[in-house]
Amino acid sequence: MNSFYKLSNQIRNYSWGDSDYIPDFLGIENPENKPFAEMWMGAHPLASSRLDEADSVQLSDFISTNEINTLGPDISRDYGRLPFLFKLLAAGESLSIQAHPSKEMAEEGFKREDDAGIPRDAAERNYRDDNHKPEIIMAMTEFTAMIGFRSLQEILKSFSEFSRIEGLTALLQKIKKIPVQSSSDALRVFFEGILTLDEETTQNLLDSALDIAREDRVCWDKTQRQWVSELVSSFPGDIGALAPLFLHVVELQPGEALYQPARALHAYLEGFGLELMANSDNVLRGGLTKKHIDVPELMKVLKFETSRPEILKPEIPDSGGIKHFITPPREFSLGLADFGTDQSINLPAGSGPEIVLVLEGKLLLQDGVSQLLLSRGESAFIPWNAGNIRITGNGRGAFAGVNR
Questions:
Q1: Residues 170 and 144 sit within 8 Å (Cβ to Cβ)
Q2: 310 bridge partner residues
Q3: Could you tell me the domains of the chain?
Q4: How confident is the model at residue 54 (pLDDT cuts 50, 70, 90)?
Q5: Which of 289, 280, 285 is nearest to 299 (CA)?
Q6: pLDDT in tens, 73-98
Q7: Do 35 and 20 contact (CB within 8 A), yes or no?
Q8: Contact in structure between 274 and 398 (CB atoms under 8 Å)
Q9: Which helix (H) or strand (E) holds 274?
Q10: Which residues are catalytic?
């Protein structure tokens, strides 16, 4: 078995994608201006990478037939598959407001829908696999996201601007009667109430929001006014357009990252980034989409608590010289390394499974026997039983591996 394998990766052309970010990064043409939303690097059954060799075998098949050698005994025993999925993500417009289940919830939901005979590729399917999906997004350009409920006081203050809309008044009054110490219950009542408003009240809210967003005197800040206005215009009739009033809006600079744990409500608004997650495609949606929305199931999955987003930066380099973002899941760890004329990275034997992606310049992988030159946008899979690997070059690399 080789120490490294160049990958060919699949593009996902979702409607919210951007026509320039990924083609420009990969150095390919896009004459039809297709929305290049994601490039998947990994072994997920929906879009596995392939080994860029004569037989072009799928990475998922390569791993399943060489499990111990590719994953190592611990990862093989605990997961039986590559535990992470690595992506380029380009948001030309907002992704859906969404949350991902815990591991236990995913296993239960996946079995329930399988037992019900719902095809795994059905539009109404909530659970496409049995895994949870905590994730981290690192900005490659300026990147805007929403995550985490604001405090109940902030939410009520923002929605007080709609005091003349009759259908909302009863909901707000109901929330105000809930004891302060039961803020989780209040958030639950608020969110479910907003998602289930009748069509007329929803439209009145959205029409009013456009007018309010144009006024400087309101209690909404500049970012809230901007995004409420953009989302209401882009998603007609969708109550999710008011999410900047109840979720935190976070603006990342290139190289900064945001961690999304399981059960946290979030949405990506715009920008180009690297995303790394547990190997799953389970999504429960709540708005800003024409795809399937299952409000009762989303309510079961969500954790109703206020939070304040933490912007992450890579920490002190490890022994190999790679700076990692600190995140809790064992399944994945995202690292960065810069290379120059006198800089190199040494990956010791047993570092894999790992995927390296070139972000800038060119990187050369060598194991003393063979070598692989990668340019920007190209990636390689490093199995567990690889020997010592030395990486040199001029540029920057991103490293997706397990959290050791």
A1: no
A2: none
A3: 5-146+251-290+298-308 (2.60.120.10), 151-239 (no CATH), 323-401 (2.60.120.10)
A4: low
A5: 285
A6: 999 999 999 999 999 999 999 999 99
A7: no
A8: yes
A9: strand 266-278
A10: 285
